[in-house]
């Protein structure tokens, strides 16, 4: 009843592709204000020196955010030549442009190596898919095609009641495109078909986190609570659906009223 293949329409602009190099690409290397990718800064805080290397700079009309690689704090102020000996504490973090300008000390410049970009690339994959494709020298339409192929495979497996294999295919699609909420919904459906309603709820919640407008996830989350005979949470879920999706209010309200009548 719920195994409906949802159309997956993604509007992406085509990106210029650049040649991969051992270091970060020239297309990836840019200058914003007086900072550059690869600039290294340090600050003394609580008696320890905290050091960061700039990986990228996001600037808009309102603000500027600097993406950095952070090193383990050290007792002595590090020199640029000592940088590679410092352990890395975080492969991706952010520093406000204003904070960097006010307090951090510049100690040199070293263009990030590709292994140093892995945390930032993972961040892009989950937050800026266009730029992720650009930085990793991939085409968005190729990635989406691969994700859709796996989604279709998962759907066919689910139709054949091969739920575990279907879930694996959906996971592979999500690994390519982490914001593929339709695949998350279908994992939820597969767990519903297996009678595991608690796990299904987890996936519907994940779907709603990345796609708050997901009426499908909200509705079937409520249906899972009904199957678990947790009518209080079911009513709360359908009531939230009424409030969050006024254009679909009647669908949620119908179940909500029935539950209210049943529990009185």
Short structural description:
This protein is of the alpha+beta class. It is built from 10 helices and 7 strands. The chain folds into 2 domains: 105 residues, SH3 type barrels (Roll); 124 residues, Serine Threonine Protein Phosphatase 5, Tetratricopeptide repeat (Alpha Horseshoe), CATH 1.25.40.10.
Describe the protein's architecture and organization.
The protein is α+β, with helices and mostly antiparallel strands and 264 residues long. It folds into two domains: 105 residues, SH3 type barrels (Roll), CATH 2.30.30; 124 residues, Alpha Horseshoe (Serine Threonine Protein Phosphatase 5, Tetratricopeptide repeat), CATH 1.25.40. 48% of the residues lie in helices and 17% in strands. The chain has ten helices and seven strands. Strands 6-5-4-3-7 form a five-stranded antiparallel beta sheet, with helices on both faces. Helix 4 runs antiparallel to helix 5, helix 6 packs antiparallel against helix 7 and helix 6 runs parallel beside helix 8. The longest helix is centred in the middle third of the chain and has 20 residues. It is elongated, with a radius of gyration of 24 Å. The relative contact order is 0.09. Keywords: Repeat, TPR repeat. InterPro entries: TPR-like_helical_dom_sf, TPR_rpt, Ycf3/AcsC/BcsC/TPR_MFPF.
């Amino acid at each position: 009843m719920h195994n409906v293949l949802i159309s997956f329409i993604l509007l992406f602009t085509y990106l210029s592709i650049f040649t991969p190099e051992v270091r970060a690409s020239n297309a990836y290397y840019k200058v914003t204000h007086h900072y550059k990718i690869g600039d290294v800064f340090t600050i003394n805080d609580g008696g320890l020196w905290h050091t960061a290397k700039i990986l990228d700079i996001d600037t808009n009309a309102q603000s500027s955010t600097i993406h950095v690689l952070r090193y383990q704090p050290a007792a002595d102020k590090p020199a640029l030549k000592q940088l590679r000996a410092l352990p890395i504490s975080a492969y991706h973090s952010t520093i406000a442009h204003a904070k960097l300008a006010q307090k951090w000390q510049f100690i040199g410049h070293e263009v990030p190596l590709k292994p140093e970009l892995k945390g930032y690339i993972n961040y892009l994959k989950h937050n800026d898919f266009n730029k992720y494709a650009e930085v990793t020298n991939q085409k968005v339409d190729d990635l989406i095609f691969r994700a859709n192929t796996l989604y279709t495979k998962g759907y066919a497996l689910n139709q054949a009641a091969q739920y575990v294999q279907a879930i694996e295919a959906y996971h592979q699609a999500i690994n390519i495109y982490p914001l593929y909420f339709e695949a998350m919904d279908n994992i939820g459906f597969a767990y519903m078909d297996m009678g595991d309603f608690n796990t299904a709820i987890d996936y519907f919640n994940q779907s709603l986190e990345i796609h708050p407008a997901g009426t499908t996830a909200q509705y079937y989350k409520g249906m899972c609570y009904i199957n678990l005979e947790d009518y209080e949470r079911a009513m709360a879920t359908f009531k939230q659906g009424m409030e969050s999706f006024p254009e679909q209010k009647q669908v949620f309200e119908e179940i909500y009223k029935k539950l209210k009548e049943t529990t009185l």
